[in-house]
Amino acid sequence: MATERRRQRLHQVLERRQADLALVAEDLQNPHNIGAMMRSCDAVGVQSVHAIFEHQQRVNLRRVGKESSASASLWLDIDYHPSTAECVDTLRARGYTLIGTLLDEQAADLYAYDFTQHERIALVIGNERWGLSSTAAQQVDQNIYIPMQGVVQSLNVSVTAALILSEISRQRRAAGCVEPLSDAERQRLLAQWGL
Predict the structure, then answer these.
(1) What Å distances lie between residue 191 and 92, 143, 184, CA to CA?
(2) 51 close to 25: Cβ distance less than 8 angstroms
(3) Is the pLDDT of residue 73 over 80?
């Protein structure tokens, strides 16, 4: 049974959750990377995580999350998708703009891009080895990149997700355009969390 202090903390967490920002992890090889991403989601107030297992073996992210994400997975909604195309269709139906991480001539600098211009954003992070699939790369609305100052061109996928989610959240909170969870969603989560 939750103490009153814990109950108040979870209510405060729900007040800060964002209904308009989601993370998509596409065919990641290492489940611990997704676990680390879920920890970042919880930290910045993202409630919705979408995991695509089209070419990689599906894993139970709640179990993996207990081991690698300080149990952040217990507090998030996780949707599993059998294909990138199905995930894209689901997110489009929910009104999300898809933001990808891909180095190409159309990619925008993470810190120069205005994330407040979109009502809802789903950040799509690709596989550790080959990045976004061709399906995802063709479907994203905007590609962004993190400016690098060293020799290497990229970061670990979980670090990439953390930096980008943090910047998106920072911009949207500063502009006052974060969509909170609905009352129904809050009640659903409170019941799910045993409160």
Answers:
(1) 28, 37, 11
(2) yes
(3) yes
pLDDT tens, position by position, 98-117: 999 987 778 999 999 999 99
Residue 11 resides in a domain: no
Structure tokens, 80: 């599993």
Query: 21 near 169, Cβ under 8 Å?
Result: yes
Apex 68 CA angle, 3 and 136, nearest 5: 115
Which regions of the chain does DSSP assign to beta strands (E)?
Answer: 18-26, 46-52, 77-81, 97-101, 108-109, 121-125, 142-145
Give the domain extent around 97: 18-187
Q: Which residue from 188, 182, 183 is spatially nearest to 20, judged by alpha carbons?
A: 182
Question: Which two three-digit tokens encode residue 96?
Answer: 């999300």
Q: 149 burial class (0-12, 13-18, 19+ CB within 10 angstroms)?
A: exposed
Q: Is residue 56 one of the residues assigned to a domain?
A: yes
Alpha-carbon gap, residue 115 to 96, rounded angstroms: 12
Domain with residue 133: its CATH number is 3.40.1280.10
Distance CA 12, CA 147 (A): 34
> What CA–CA distance (Å, rounded) separates 157 from 33?
7
pLDDT in tens, 19-28: 999 999 999 9
65 — pLDDT class (breaks 50, 70, 90): low
Q: What is the DSSP letter of 116?
A: G
